[in-house]
Specification:
Helices cover 30% and strands 17% of the residues. It is an alpha/beta fold. Its EC number is 3.1.1.-.
């Protein structure tokens, strides 16, 4: 156990004007600066109050864990931060990584970690959060993911930035630029946690990694990667997995050289391409990569992300070298307890249907083959035949332009989230305790003002875990939030979301899923225990893969 003296804590109480963290966390009439000595040097954080139970917590924001990936370090694995002298002020969020938005925001100098803890002297379990955003947007800012309610449950909370888009996931599919440096940023951050979390009252042996959407896929990849072994003891995956179609780039080399072509780089040589790409200003390069993404997305919007995870060439520094499903089904992954699930109608989030509306519903002859998952088969005739079966199953054999939006949403929810998550549950449950859920509560904290389809859309559950800024919360909203936070933090503490019968959780005990009985917690106004979600629709997909693919998910 780390002693009081090893922590090297100095409390400097400063009276005077009050500055809350970014004006978000509340502070009283005095502001408490906190200095902690970690392995790389001394940092100054701040003592603040949570908005939930008014718990006193310590916040350290924007601690560098890597050297800025600039110049020749662009597209390279991260380099650990060198020690510094003096006291580094870490009292507000630093720049996010470069974002795929217009206008371009963020910075390449973005590799920072933030730690929030109820107690600097202790041995608390640790939740490490990995943000989502399709691997092209996202940040670890407090305003985005305020952990107030999580901290009220007496756990340490950590979040960090990692490189996104072309800067984090460019790959030439060779040893010049193997790819996945965004994941390698995450590995370095997790190693930083192992080295330093004891200085913040955390227990390095009790780290749970937690991600949502692409962050959930990242968690799944960490379970598959030898680079991440020993860095966590449990995993939470909200609305995403390494089996999700969007979580793997199958055309990375083509996209890399297409980017070079747009920039008039006359090269089919990876070394020349990477050298030239390093010459461009990050803002301009991001703008170009966004235009390339538009071209690629229009080819098939459901095929996967354009700058995202890749299967690397086998080499000593590889993060992931291939075939998620075979490795999961054979148990070749880090075997730790998992909690994973989906929202009741993921694609009901408006953003998930806009591309489909534009590309399919406005055309007189929809692209039938594009309805077929990219991983199922490459044979044109089979892709078309499978697409016809999908259209008949979901859309009564009619053109998509004639369909109500609810049917489009159901298809996309199944294709992009439900079926890959179900398969992941089956695979995980063969080897490790697997807690499966569906979040079905329709409330105000998810931030949806106008619903395009029934059910709970993508991302909404995060409003019941992190601080939100929506008013007029109902009693059921607050109750559901308390339940979600309790279950998720229970899992961090005990690797079991319901270790005891709890009146807050209606005395329910969450049963683990089994391959032949997919038990799940249905989280609604009331909690219910159910099994085999969306069974008829999932059976359709299993049969379709057997008929047109090499087998169920064999081609992942």
């Amino acid at each position: 156990m780390i002693s009081r003296w090893q922590v090297g804590l100095v409390l400097l109480t400063v009276y005077g004007s009050v500055q809350s963290l970014e004006g978000i966390m509340r502070s009283n009439k005095m502001s408490d600066d906190v200095i902690v000595s970690i392995q790389d040097g001394m940092i100054m954080g701040k003592l603040v109050k949570t908005v939930g139970k008014n718990t006193t917590v310590y916040a350290f924001q924007g601690i560098p864990f890597a050297e800025p990936p600039l110049g020749n370090l662009r597209f390279e694995p991260p380099v650990p931060k060198r020690p510094w002298s003096g006291i580094l002020k870490c009292q507000k969020d630093k720049d996010m990584c470069v974002q795929d938005v217009n206008p371009v925001t963020g910075s390449e100098d973005c590799l920072h970690v933030s730690v929030y803890t109820p107690n600097l002297i202790g041995n608390l379990p640790v939740m490490v959060y990995i943000y989502g955003g399709a691997f092209i947007i996202g940040d670890s800012n407090y305003k985005t993911y305020g952990p107030d309610y999580i901290l009220d449950e007496n756990v340490v909370f950590v979040q960090f930035n990692y490189r996104l888009g072309i800067f984090g996931f460019l790959s030439t599919e060779d040893l010049v630029c193997p790819g996945n440096v965004g994941f390698k940023d995450q590995v370095l951050a997790l190693k930083w946690v192992q080295k330093n979390i004891g200085f913040f009252g955390g227990n390095r042996a009790k780290v749970t990694i937690f991600g949502e959407s692409s962050g959930a896929a990242a968690v799944a990849y960490h379970m598959l990667s030898p680079m991440s072994r020993g860095l966590f003891r449990a995993a939470i995956m909200d609305s995403g997995s390494s089996l999700s179609l969007w979580s793997l780039n199958r055309n990375a080399k083509e996209i890399a050289f297409l980017t070079g072509s747009v920039l008039s780089i006359p090269a089919n040589d990876s070394k020349v391409l990477i050298t030239e790409l390093r010459r461009f200003n990050y803002t301009f390069l991001q703008q170009v990569s966004s235009s390339v993404s538009t071209i690629v997305t229009e080819m098939n919007p459901l095929a996967g992300v354009y700058f995202g995870p890749v299967e690397e060439t086998v080499h000593p520094g590889a993060f992931f070298t291939g075939d998620s499903e075979k490795r999961l089904s054979s148990g070749n992954f880090t075997r730790v307890p998992v909690l994973l699930g989906v929202n009741s109608n993921e694609a009901a989030a408006v953003g998930f249907i806009t591309t489909l509306w534009r590309l399919y519903l406005t055309e007189s002859h929809p692209k039938i083959s594009a309805l077929t998952p990219a991983d199922m088969t490459d044979e044109p005739d089979k892709r078309f035949s499978a697409g016809l079966e999908i259209r008949c199953f979901y859309f009564d054999c009619l053109a998509l332009s004639a369909q109500p939006v609810e049917k489009i949403v159901t298809y996309m929810s199944d294709d992009q989230f439900n079926r890959p998550t179900r398969r992941a549950v089956i695979d995980f449950s063969k080897y490790v305790p697997t807690y499966n859920y569906m979040f079905s509560y329709v409330g105000s904290l998810g931030g949806v003002r106008e619903r395009i389809a029934p059910g709970v859309g993508h991302v909404e559950e995060l409003g019941y875990l992190f601080r939100t800024y929506y008013s007029n919360s109902s009693i059921n909203d607050i109750l559901t939030r308390k339940r979600m936070v309790r279950m998720w933090t229970n899992f961090v503490k005990y690797r079991n979301p319901t270790p005891v019968k709890d009146p807050l959780l209606q005395y329910k005990k969450w049963p683990i899923a089994k391959p032949n009985r997919l038990n799940y917690f249905n989280i609604d106004v009331n909690i219910s225990i159910e099994s085999n979600p969306f069974k008829d629709r999932m059976d359709f997909w299993d049969n379709l893969y057997v008929k047109y693919g090499k087998g169920i998910y064999d081609t992942y």
